[in-house]
Give the backbone structure.
Amino acid sequence: MKIRYTGQKAEKEVFQVFNETMRQLIEQDARVVYLDADLMGSLKTQELWKRYPGNVLNTGIQEANMVGVACGLYLNGFKPYVHSFSPFASRRVFDQVFLSVGYGRKSVRVIGSDAGIMATHNGGTHMCFEDIAMMRTVPGACVVDISDPVMCGAFLKMTRDRPGLTYIRMPRRDLPDIYPPETAFAEGRGMLLREGSDITLVGCGIMVATCLQAAELLASDGIEARVIDIVTVKPLDEELLLDSAGRTGAVVTAENASVLGGLGSAVAEYLSSVHPVPVLKVGIQDSFGRVGTESFLRKAYGLTPESVALRAREALKLKQAL
Amino acid sequence: MSLSSKRELEQMALNIRLGIIRAITSNHGGHIGGSFDLAEMLAVVYSDFMRVNPEKPDWDQRDFMIFSKGHAGPALYAALALKGFFPEERLENLNNPNSLLPGHCDRNHVPGVDATTGSLGQGLSIACGAALAGKLRGTDQRVFCVTGDGESAEGQIWEAAQFAAHYSLDNLIAFLDWNKMQIDGSNDEVMRLGDPVRKYQAFGWNACLVKGNEVMAIQRAVRRAVEEPNGKPSMIVLDTVKGEGARCIVEMANNHCIGFSDELCGKVMEELREQGRKLGMEVE
């Protein structure tokens, strides 16, 4: 597809798109409610809170209760969105999300911000690498890792009436523009961002742009990489993955999350059962978080274009050895 | 508002206990203790206060009943069957394989159940959300919620308690089944609850203590909560005895979730028949 990635920071930050989109949703549909657990300041949504007191509600620092309240609001006619930092929106409330939302068949959108290394200076206590792995196990869930501000707005809108758990994982800022405005996204549909026949790079979230950069590095060595933004880690775009594995014979996955149970696991689980090819994983290798800037943390955890390119070369060797 | 008489409510409570026994004996056991002691509360709420439509369980103006202590499913199911949400024969499916009546409250399988519960501490939050929704929609819906005393050790209960007061949810009427017992022993042995009335008052609720087996006391307390909203949620602490309604159950050291032999069933039925005779009811 046609993309507008230049490597520059996006025109609009994710939190701006979040604010604009929630405002539109509330204006269009009085049953939309957005709950936050005392992190409106972080998402800069206090203006929305003031302006729409019947739709924007603060629960204070009680994430478990917030998820339950969202479920009750749904039962009595509302369309709740809840936000906290990703560790508190997933790990801390996993039972509430799994049972009260998932098993109890409510329609709730959970937004986990500052996922993975994007927690930067909040450090290890706030750095959530395992949310994808956990949320994937909720039957019926949709798990999306936002790679671009346009995608953020699109998913907030398109999941408004989606039954079950929708988990939207996103940084608050510093994403690049990848997609033109009005790009149509769909649950379970990955985006083919670059054609290539030697290897497939599958990324999600902030690692999508990293894959595009890695593809440039590889191209300078004559290696043509096909690049996919998987968009939703669950449901997985199996058709696109199978087609790509068939065309390229080797896959590298890249995620700002633990490789245990994350995107790499999902891709390997699928391909190993239908079309086994080497699948190498770039991501957090069984580590806790730590403090740092994004660029420091990318180097510390190997989330750089160079790491992706290195793994791609390793994958190519494995492919040739088959 | 025309309210039921003492005799009518006691008959309803007995019918609820009979339904619980029907359900639990069909599966040779279950959560009897904390189900039996809720019979009077359910009789009062479902006879006099719950505005629901068994023909249309998801009616969008209905009152809600959320069992935060989800293991008391058999009690709620018995009340729902009596209200006509499903045929009473269905009670005999409790926890059978492919059952349409899972032991813990399940909104997806049982008409009239408003929330799926069982992982303790979560139901009061859901009740808060439903009550808040009623406020935001401007309806006069009431939300009833049943919590347990062992459950009150869960932190989420107190998150919800704070939330309900902050949002002035005076359409939320909660009960605490204070039977003083939990799986591993008494509350005092396992985790002291202290004085729940004073705790809820300190959280900004209306709170009172009523005898859990006195239908008229429960009726008065619910009526007050319903008719005199004052900007505060209401907590009606039910002073109960776990297994109330059958001496042979009450006298057990642990009656939380027990197997049910034919002999035990016979003994319980003997007691319930005796109660029926006093209330002028034929109990089979």
Notes: The mean pLDDT of chain A is 97. Chain A touches chain B at residues 33, 54, 57, 59-60, 62, 64-78, 80, 95-96, 99-100, 103-105 (CB under 8 Å). Residues 21 and 153 of chain A are 6 Å apart (CA to CA).
